[in-house]
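### Sample
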Amino acid sequence: MKERKEKEQKLLREKQEKEVEEQERRMIEEKSRERYREWLRKKRDEEQERKRRQKEEEERRLAEQKEKKEKAERMFSEWLEQAKNKPRPTLSSYGYVNGKLTGYYDGSSYPAPGFCNPIPWKPIPMPPPPKENVRNPSGKKKKRPVSHQLYRSSPSMVCKPKDNLHVGGGMFRR
């Protein structure tokens, strides 16, 4: 009987230990599920926030683009109005077309200047060069020493091979 009781107690203890382990495992699983739900909720919130920011950025960019386009159109229309009032350049060449005197393109004539500089051109003031060409009292010019290196043939002419004979290659002058 003792052995039986011991066996039963041992089995009971093992059963209790298993239940405790099972309960701990269930608690751990529950905690992990709760953490996963929390993480998932956080991820969804972050994703929604990111999409919201992206949408706001896109709307802001579209608003800026629209404003820029409107400004460009407004500036263009102002320029167009001003361009209507600007004086047109006069035509330099004239001719008769259908019995009327009109301007026509002639490549041999110069067009009227489109711009005239209101400030006249002024030369840069420079001092006159010193006069060194004073003649000798005898009236003769001094001879300059002539350098013989000026008349020396270039090395490319000297080293030219003589086997490059061309028939009718411009060797004879007429």
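DSSP finds two helices and two strands in the chain. This sample (Coiled-coil domain-containing protein) is used throughout the tutorial notebook.
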